[in-house]
Sequence to fold (140 residues):
Amino acid sequence: EALKAKAKDMAYDLILNLVKDPDIVSMSPEKQEPFLEKIADDNPFMRLLYITDKAGVKTTRNITQKKDIELYREKLQEFGDFSDRPWFRKVMDQKEIYFSDLYTSKITGLLCITVSAPIFDERGDILGVLGIDIKFDDLI
Fold:
C-alpha cells in the first residue's frame, strides 16, 4: 500500500506538470506528439500516452516505448471515441487527476495503472484529457 501511494505521488506530480506545458495546451497533435515522444523516451515506465479532445475523441497517435510500437499498433485502435472510458469520464466530471486501480494490461500483460488529467485553457475550461498508462513495477 505504501508503494502504491508513492507511485501515485510520483505520477501525480509528473502529469500535473505535463498538462501545463504549452505544447500540450496547444491541442495541436503536431506539437503534442513530439513532446509526448520525448516524455516517453525519458520515462521508460510509461507504456502509453494519449490525448483526447473534450468530447473524448482521441487526437494523438498512441505514443509508446519504441520497442512496443508494433505491439500497440496491432492490438489497440489509434483513434476513436473514448468518451465512455472511466479515465475520461472521471476527469471530465471531477475536473481533476484520476488514478485507476491496478490492472493487467490487455496489450502487454503487465501490471499497470492509468493516470489521466484535464488539460485546461487560460480561463480554466477543459480543452481535453491527457492519459498515461504506467507500468507499475517500473514506477515503484
Observations:
- The mean pLDDT is 88.
- DSSP finds six helices and six strands in the chain.
- Residues 2-18 form the longest helix (17 residues).
